[in-house]
Design brief:
The protein has 253 residues and is α/β, with parallel strands linked by helices. The chain is 42% helix and 14% strand. It has one domain: 3-Layer(aba) Sandwich (Rossmann fold), CATH 3.40.50. The longest helix is centred in the middle third of the chain and has 26 residues. It is globular. The N and C termini lie far apart (56 Å).
Length: 253
């Protein structure tokens, strides 16, 4: 009998960057547990990739602002597949628009619940479920702004800075039980706030004179998933954006 494929849990894995990461993992031979707050079906591109690779996958609904739901997610994945995930990609996040004058206990709590607490609780639960004879990989999806923060989206930025700091702390605390790394993307998928001319201008502002591709972020995740001698590291997949200090968020430039 052939061995079961490695299993990856990707939060926010149905849409946008999460779906690109999931697609790359499918191509790399992973079975997939894809969590979402509200989507039960992946986007069209990911659906085609899953079908083309005959990927064993399942969707899991989870509100990651709820600590109990975050912890139950690993249990639900383990029960469905009959084993704990070998890889956890903490991709799900919320992205608010508060500056320091709008920042409040409510904005901080909302962002830290999804962007920090749930990744930490999922990591803890995964290592417990994996047992002492397995060393799963955990990859935190960060943001290039952790290197040179500005004043926009402050609650979001603070939550991602805290998650970035957790990479080394968890890697040290979980040494021998898990590998913990991070990937910090730049602007990889535009939203409605951007037009094509602005995207072109922003690309020229990057040290590599081009905006990064979402596939580059996914490639970094796949590398770290397999890099058995690597832990506590952060890879910037951002066109070099972290090398420069931008006065405002990209949407305002």
């Amino acid at each position: 009998m052939s061995a079961a494929p490695p299993l990856a849990l990707v939060t926010g894995g149905m849409r946008r960057l999460g779906s690109v990461i999931a697609g790359k993992l499918a191509e790399a031979g992973y079975a997939l547990a894809l969590s979402s707050h509200q989507d039960s079906e992946p986007d069209d591109a990911l659906s085609e990739t899953l079908s083309a690779n005959e990927t064993d996958w399942h969707a899991f609904m989870a509100d990651l602002s709820d600590a109990d739901a975050a912890e139950k997610l690993v249990d639900n994945v383990t029960q469905h597949f009959g084993r704990a995930p070998d890889l956890l990609v903490n991709n799900a996040a919320i992205f608010g628009q508060d500056g320091w004058t709008e920042m409040s206990a409510e904005t901080l709590d909302a962002h830290f619940r999804v962007n920090l607490y749930s990744p930490l609780l999922l990591a803890k639960k995964l290592v417990e479920a994996a047992g002492e004879n397995s060393v799963p990989s955990i990859v935190q999806i960060l943001d290039q702004r952790i290197a040179n923060p500005h004043g926009d989206q402050l609650s979001y930025t603070l939550s991602k800075q805290a998650l970035a700091a957790s990479v080394r702390s968890l890697a040290s605390a979980m040494a021998g039980r898990a590998r913990v790394n991070g990937v910090a993307p730049g602007l990889v998928i535009k939203t409605d706030e951007y037009d094509e001319a602005q995207m072109s201008r922003l690309g020229e502002m990057m040290p590599l004179h081009a905006l990064p591709k979402p596939e580059s972020v996914a490639d970094a995740v796949v590398y770290l998933a397999r890099a058995n001698d690597t832990t506590g590291q952060i890879i910037f997949a951002d066109g070099g954006a972290h090398l420069r200090s931008f006065e405002r968020d990209f949407m305002h430039l």
